[in-house]
Amino acid sequence: MSSLFIPVILLARVIAVNAEEHIIRFKNDCGSGTPTLVRGGQILPLSNNGGYQDFTSTNPFESAIAYLQTSDQKCLLNGENCVLVEMNMNNPSCPGCGSSVDLSLITPHKYQDSTAFSFWGGDGTCDGLGAVCSDPNCSTAFHQSNDNQVQRYCNSNNVNLLITFCGPQTTGYTPAVANSLSSLSNQAGQPSHAVVSLTPPSTPEPQGGQTSSTSTTATTVATPPSEEHTTTATTHSSASPVAAGTPKGKTCKVKARGRHGRVH
Asked: In which residue ranges is the amino acid composition biased (Basic residues) (predicted)?
């Protein structure tokens, strides 16, 4: 083989190793309404994928929001009047610098339909980790700007996100599959959370519509950030998933959403 081709091959391998991709997948079981994904003040196009609607990003996908637009267009562009899903999807540059997702009911956002999210894909360590809000007073969503315990973190590369509307789940946090890295913090003296029967997807398609047999109150799986979740662009620290009994500490700075419940 000519030596001229060796650098090209090596470059291709580096690009393949460093490639980043995140799928934002929607499952709407409400019978009406339109899943809506917004970033930078723009509604992004979704592609149909069987019973799902997908958006694929080949770069970090940060400061984005999602909601279910009602048939009467009740939700405004930034999700006002509806349950909001806020997301930062990115490969971690250090322990604790990965993806972060939460639900928000901070005014002017309001409850309209059951909304859930869960991570899937990547290396499989975060499969199923997420939260469900099935009532206006759900303890799994932001009601005040300092409810940082509701944020869910994943430190897996190329992790994806499944957002489900009107699913059968009851309000609670959903743990990752057994023995996954992100579920170990459940064993570190934390109260138990909503028990969900989840297995890693055998194909790129996640297992939507999982059911929960237990309603739970608000508790924490990941260590919440030390600084308040604010309405302005700030940074906060989060802890990476660690083995049971291992102290958690600040590891690095991660980017918070630009304005809570708002996009520019």
From this structure: 250-264
> What is this structure's pTM?
0.67
- What does the angle CA 262 – CA 119 – CA 152 come to, to the nearest 5 degrees? 55
CA neighbor of 88 nearest in space, from 128, 41, 46, 39:
39
pLDDT per residue as tens digits for the range 39-91: 999 999 999 999 999 999 999 999 999 999 999 999 999 999 999 999 999 99
Alpha-carbon distance of 192 to 16, in angstroms, equals 39
Q: ∠ at Cα 94 (145, 258), nearest 5°?
A: 30
Instruction: Name the fold adopted by 17-255.
Output: Thaumatin (2.60.110)
| CA distances for 95 relative to 101, 154, 221, angstroms | 17, 10, 16
Report domain extents, the chain. Answer: 17-255
